[in-house]
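We modelled each protein-ligand pair independently. The example shown here corresponds to the flavin mononucleotide entry; the chain sequence is given first, followed by the ligand as SMILES.
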Amino acid sequence: MIDTIFKHRTIRSYKSLAIEDEVLEKILKAGTRASTTGNMQVYSVIVTKDKEIKEKLWQAHFKQNMVKQAPVILTFCADFNRFNKWCEQRKAKPGYDNFLSFYTASIDALLAAQNVALEAESHGLGICYLGTTTYMAADIIKALNIPKSVVPVTSIVIGYPQDIPPLTDRLPLEAVVHADVYTDYSEEDIDRIYKDKEALQQTKDLLIENEKETLSQVFTDNRYTKKDNVFFSKEYLKIIERQGFMNNEL
Ligand SMILES: Cc1cc2nc3c(=O)[nH]c(=O)nc-3n(C[C@H](O)[C@H](O)[C@H](O)COP(=O)(O)O)c2cc1C
């Protein structure tokens, strides 16, 4: 498994090969073995293989090719629907219609998703997370019949890789690890931490492609702009409220 972790790369093109049912079941079971808040398992996974529903998901996920190409799309949701029903059927009054509960359930969903990703990779399958899940949650809710108290938080496409891309770079460990307490970054730290990334040929190509002076500008001006972030934040907050997670009154 450690080997699997160190070999991870996102796969964006897939063979048109189905995933064997037993393999998929094992992968999903691995998801359920993740840590979960209070062992409540307040998440659910929607397994989409149907062509028509995949087409709807493809539309929602900014028409990313792999959503149509990969045999399986997994949508991980923060889900208090099932747990609330269980409480109500057992004479218990659920208090999970607030933001904290949404966040708790999101953590559960994400931990399950990463277990699923690793188990899938250990079977020779490839995966790609879809950030478009949060951007387009309203369309995904519609396409997948998602009820109240459930919010999609991430998706993973899974399938057999068409080709294996090289490993992507990572920042040095010192960039993300602090000893005992948080040590804030000096200007020199920032220069040192990002030096290797900035020197990559891939970075140089990106600067030309995006007509930018620095790699940071590729992020701020093109990939993840303030305008988009504000727009999609408002959309997602509306969804969290509509799905019943913003009643923060006692
Ligand atoms: C939450 C999340 C959302 C992502 N969304 C997308 C996506 O919508 N499309 C895509 O092609 N890759 C997506 N990725 C993959 C990242 O781009 C990828 O993990 C990153 O570039 C590092 O590459 P690696 O996974 O090959 O190491 C996402 C990854 C995460 C964790």
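The radius of gyration is 20 Å.
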